[in-house]
Amino acid sequence: AIFGNERSNLFDPEQWAIEMLDYVEFPMHPDSPAESLNTVQLKRLDLARALASQPKLLLLDELAAGLTSGELDDLMNVIRKIRNSGVTILMIEHIMRVIMGLCDRIFVLHYGEKIAEGLPTEIANDPKVTEAYLGEDYML
Description:
Radius of gyration: 18 Å
Strand content: 15-25%
Number of helices: 7
Number of strands: 4
Strand order of the largest sheet: 1-2
Helix content: 40-55%
Structural class: alpha+beta
């Protein structure tokens, strides 16, 4: 595993950056200027940069925003790989497919107030969540 390993005195920051880019499956050459990258490439670059410090906790805020369905699947696989490496992930997300596909525990906020907390299956069946996000008519 990449994370949690102690770095030796021979630590090479450039090699470490390349390893992190490989880890997040960055599709471009490592020397590519950030200004030439598209949305999904920038998100992978940001992930690599965040992972370079070997965090125990990673905060992701709307990482899936603006991605196509295929890009979403690929990015979810990378996030799953990060989570499975032992990094705890706290994510803020509005795309239900991402939430239900990645989260072990969900907190639902509505206008800044917590209306539900639980496992994905519990949240999916919570009437307060359904009412808040699908409307009262959906409940009938």
